[in-house]
Amino acid sequence: MNPLRIAALALILAGVLALVYGGFSYTKQTHEAKLGPLELSVKEKQTVNIPIWSGIGAIVAGGVLLAVGGNKR
């Protein structure tokens, strides 16, 4: 398998995952304060939405790479 084909398959997989999940979330720890033996911190949940057009674009770009780069024999 050549690197171009691997990149194309990775783009297709990323596009499908973007369409299925639509985004991801992570927890960010901020605002730490230490008052003697007492420690305070706030955990914020951040959400990143992935637009539908970017998932479709990744699938199309991966398909084009497979079609163009796969026929070099």
UniProtKB/TrEMBL annotation:
The chain crosses the membrane at residues 46-68. This is DUF3185 domain-containing protein. It comes from Methylacidimicrobium tartarophylax. Keywords: Membrane, Transmembrane, Transmembrane helix.
